[in-house]
Amino acid sequence: MLSNEQLERYSRHIILKEVGAKGQKKLLNAKVLIIGAGGLGAPAAMYLAAAGVGTIGIADADEVDLSNLQRQIIHSTQDVGKAKVQSAKETMEAINPDVKVITYRTFVDSESIMDLIKDYDFIIDGTDNFPAKFLINDACVMAKKPFSHAGIIRFKGQLMTYVPGEGPCYRCVFKNPPPKDAVPTCKQAGVIGAMGGVIGSLQAMEAVKYILGVGDLLTGYLLTYDALKMEFRKIKLPEHTEDCAVCGDHPTITELIDYEQTECEEI
Amino acid sequence: MSEIHFDEQVDITDVVCPVTFVKAKVALEEMDEGQVLAVKMNDGEPVQNVPRSIKEEGHQILKLDTNDDGTYTLFVKKVGE
Question: What is the pTM of this model?
Answer without folding.
Answer: 0.91
